[in-house]
UniProtKB/TrEMBL annotation:
The keyword Lipid metabolism does not apply. It comes from the Bacteria. This is DUF4386 family protein. Keywords: Membrane, Transmembrane, Transmembrane helix. The chain crosses the membrane at residues 21-41, 61-85, 92-112, 141-162, 169-187, 193-213. The keyword Transmembrane applies.
Length: 223
């Protein structure tokens, strides 16, 4: 008669990592969405964008802080999903981890809003516009911004897809996240559609976060 081996106790710190990952999933998308909803940007032109900073100075400054922490939390959020998929979807999980790591650069780019507000409030409009266009015209700016934006969108979407492939989350959060980021990336100049897009992403991540939050420690440790 074979005696079954005793169940292995979860590794130390398992509950902390699981709950921390769940909180990052729930909070990250919510903060990014809130930061966009704080300001109805009129940004069809650079002049409109700067004028928004002059008209809603306090809102823009606080939105930059909220966005900064939202973007930062998206990295541990994605790593939580990667943990769920590390055994059954290793390649997708690895790609998601690398891309989301690149996307973490957006947390630093949020600070640029503070300088844009300074331009809009401290310089005459024509001078502020000139300096803004010169700064944005450097090719190196695209080398920072484009990988960060695409990395964040693709990385978090792939992380959700990897968790679904590993049967840790249903397919609906993957669809919501993909559609949400698609709206954010495709829509240009609209004041509210990016907020709607990030709201879909927030729901997708919070859905996954709720699953992780309800998960038993031993199940999490075996993922």
């Amino acid at each position: 008669m074979t005696v079954p081996a005793p169940a292995r106790a979860p590794a130390p710190g398992t509950r902390f990592r699981r709950i921390g990952g769940a909180v990052s999933l729930i909070a990250s998308g919510a903060l990014v969405c809130a930061s966009l909803a704080m300001i109805p940007y009129g940004n069809r032109t650079d002049a409109e964008y700067l004028q928004t900073g002059a008209d809603h100075t306090a809102d823009v400054l606080w939105a930059a802080v909220v966005a900064h922490y939202g973007y930062l939390l998206l990295l541990p959020a994605a790593l939580t999903l990667v943990h769920l998929a590390r055994r059954r979807a290793r390649r997708i999980a690895l790609a998601a981890m690398v891309l989301t790591g690149l996307g973490a650069g957006l947390s630093g780019l949020a600070a640029v809003d503070l300088y844009d507000v300074a331009l809009a409030t401290e310089l005459p409009p024509d001078r502020a516009l000139h300096v803004f266009e010169v700064a944005g015209g450097h090719g190196q700016a695209a080398l920072i911004a484009v990988p960060s934006i695409l990395g964040l969108a693709l990385g978090t979407t792939l992380a959700l897809a990897a968790a679904w492939w590993a049967r840790a989350v249903p397919v609906y959060p993957v669809v919501l996240g993909a559609v949400g980021w698609g709206v954010v990336l495709v829509v240009d100049g609209d004041a509210w559609l990016p907020s709607i897009g990030t709201a879909l992403v927030a729901v997708a991540l919070a859905w996954a976060g709720a699953i992780v939050l309800r998960m038993r420690d031993d199940v999490w440790d075996r993922m």
